[in-house]
Design brief:
- The protein is mainly β.
- It has a single domain, classed as Jelly Rolls (Sandwich), CATH 2.60.120.10.
- It has one helix and twelve strands; from the N terminus they run E-E-E-E-E-E-E-E-E-E-E-E-H.
- Strand 7 (74-79) and strand 8 (84-89) form a beta hairpin.
- The protein starts with 11 loop residues before the first strand and ends with a helix.
Length: 143
Amino acid sequence: MISESPKPSGSARLINLPVISDPRGDLTFVEGSNHVPFDVARVYYLYNVPVDADRGGHAHRVLQQVVFALSGSFRLKVDDGFEKTDYWLRNPRQGVLIDRLIWREMDSFSQGAVCMVLASNRYDEGDYIRDYGAFQKAVGAKL
């Protein structure tokens, strides 16, 4: 960790959603501004991802997200410009909350994996940082 540079306001952490279980199965739910720290403005999901494909490879200036593996598994790699962390997602009631200014990449999708993302804002191409060097500058990381 580089201590000379200030860390960005962004972070990533695991969150657990509630589960209601009975003999018929499990039910998990999510409420915006309750289980996640924002109102959900957009939901999208990835599926039929080839097992050797990479997804992500960007950060957001403002957007917050929570990423879940609804089925199967995949690796989510997050980077705040100072530290890198890998999360292996495979439990549909556990997600990773990704704050603003966090670089994210996904890989190692299992066959049949389904990734669902809850987003704080609607799609806005201008919110994306797609160049890693520009991301590092935005968070004040030493290059």
